[in-house]
Amino acid sequence: MREIEIKAHVSNPESVKALFVSRLGEGKTVKKRDHYFRRPGESVQALRIRSFDGVIEFTTKKTSSADGSENNEEYEFRAFPDQYDKALQFFHALGYEDFFIKKKDGWEWMDGRAHVELLSVNKLGWFLEIEILLPFDSPDRECDEARNEIENIIREAGLSSSDYESRSYREMILESENGIQG
Predict the structure, then answer these.
(1) CB count, 10 Å around CB of 39?
(2) What are the mean pLDDT values of the chain's consecutive 10-residue runs (182 residues total)?
(3) CA–CA separation, 86 vs 171, rounded Å?
(4) Which residue, 4, 96, 111, 136, could crosslink 146 as a Cys pair with Cβ 3.0–4.6 Å?
């Protein structure tokens, strides 16, 4: 799948949540824990194990970004949570190294085909993250339409393009953990 996504900083999560609750209902509570791995000597993640909703999900992706949005090709499969420790051992045996852990807590809604999440991420603050998934072979026109749809939802939430965050959570987490200014 191609993931068209924009994330934006949120200074007033209560008002953003109230807007989505009024439009889309209470939403679903989000509690995700992502364990990222990298290949030895590399500075980017190679894969992720996500724990949520009683499953673990394995993901690797090819990422490209421009204009504050991401356009990713994702490859995923799921397993039962009792396989988590075995999965860690498996990836360590293949030579992958632990990289970092990302924790997301908040709420999610579906707004048409857009998946909307209002999230507190590690100690980075609050973000509005909106994505639309498209087939791999979607033409650029459809990707542009998805981006416009996402931007409209962001504006309705009272945010603007100046709130967009183009850095990945990985970059922000590693900067905050290592004291790197970026």
Answers:
(1) 15
(2) 95 98 97 93 88 91 66 83 92 94 97 98 97 94 97 97 94 78 38
(3) 28
(4) 4
Q: Can you read off the two tokens belonging to residue 130?
A: 């909106």
DSSP string covering 75-93, please? EEEEE-GGGHHHHHHHHHH
Comparing C-alpha atoms, which of 36, 52, 147, 17 is closest to residue 101?
36
Q: How far apart are CA 146 and CA 87, in angstroms?
A: 34
**Closest listed residue to residue 108, CA positions, set 1, 12, 16:** 16
DSSP letters along 23-48, please?
Answer: HH-S-EEEEEEEEEEE-TT-SS--EE
Residues 27, 108 contacting (CB under 8 angstroms): yes
- Phi (first) and psi of residue 9, to 5 degrees: -70, 140
How many other C-beta atoms can be found within 10 angstroms of the C-beta atom of residue 126?
18
**Dist. CA 77–CA 120, nearest whole Å:** 25
Residues linked to residue 78 through DSSP beta bridges, in sequence order: 57
Sorted by sequence, the CB contacts under 8 Å of residue 126 that are 6+ apart come out as 9, 10, 11, 13, 16, 106, 118, 119, 120
